[in-house]
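Re: Re: ligand-bound prediction request (bumping)

Still looking for help on this. To restate: I need the protein modeled with zinc ion bound, output as structure tokens. Inputs repeated here so nobody has to scroll up.
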Amino acid sequence: NERFDPAIAQMIKEFALPSRPSRLYNPKFGGFKRFKGYGYGVRMELSIAQPDDWHLHLRDGELLEAVVSHSAKQFGRAIIMPNLRPPVTTTSAAVAYHDSILNALPDNTNFTPLMTLYLTDKTSPHEIKLARESGVVYGVKLYPAGATTNSQDGVTDLFGKCLPVLEEMVNQDMPLLVHGEVTDPEIDIFDREKVFIDRILKPLIQKLPKLKVVMEHVTTMDAVKFVESCEEGCVAATVTPQHLLLNRNSLFQGGLQPHNYCLPVLKRETHRQAIVAAVTSGNRRFFLGTDSAPHDRQQKECACGCAGVFNSPVALSIYAKVFEEAGALDKLEAFTSLNGPDFYGLPRNTRKITLKKTTWKVPESYSYASGSIVPMSAGESLEWLPYSPS
Ligand SMILES: NC(=O)N[C@@H](CC(=O)O)C(=O)O
Ligand SMILES: [Zn+2]
Ligand SMILES: [Zn+2]
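Reply:
Sorry for the wait, this slipped through. Here it is.
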């Protein structure tokens, strides 16, 4: 590095990986032209195994058509959430939904949807067997009834109604994916995740220590501590771009910000920092799950707006930004591309994608047949532009 100006040498040191520099990180030097954010025109590229999205809402109908390509461009696989109306409660419904996703996909993509079943009080153990046999279902989703978007048909009493199903899931090695918030109206909305851990998750893993559980979209230091305390390979967590980048101030900055409203709701800064520390530590229990949850603009900008952030177009740029700011770009690939398949017992993607450190502007909205969808960070500038896999 002596060849370079000391400022560049320092930057290279910061970005170069101690362990596998050539594999994960290839800085390319583009002369000494001024380049935004970089005094000396250093151009950076990050090449990583193709990421998967372990928590994604693709919706159906027109919305599915409008959003699916944003995921298919960047991700190899995605766990598809079943909270449609009506919810995907049976294997045959999951197979039909799988087909409609494949039909909506653009040509020449290798994107593979991994389906889930929506757990209800009435789900039978037999349905779990069918799900496993289908070869397209990879998880069962627990929505406490009333906790979030389209959760009306969710579970009212997990231990009272669902134990035989959960036992069959252990037999079938079928993971339980959890929206971890209690719905008790007495509990403050900012405490619902913590209380869920104490009331439901701790007793659950005590009763069924072999059940694979993914705590979806973790938002608190309590969840981080809980997941870290569990046995690796049994309990894991997905983390969204918004819960890594934003705190609850972003809901009210300069006026009410409906496009930052999702569930679990954004938390205070100390929680955000705990989540960033967890994912950038290299802990294998944490992996990428965008929770990209598109709603039409009119359903967001109204008197009783829906919960959900549409982040597919910006997710990888934001994850890279968060890891870069934490000085942990060397841990990004494990989080985006390795820990997830390892937990689910699936092969890692062999394709690569490239993230290029260049400034790009996020569109204000994406229009589709009957409306438009506003993405996370709409109108803002981001770096780390993802390139399609080669
Ligand atoms: N995250 C959200 O705020 N919304 C999700 C549901 C969910 O994941 O809880 C949705 O389907 O819109
Ligand atoms: Zn959820
Ligand atoms: Zn979700």
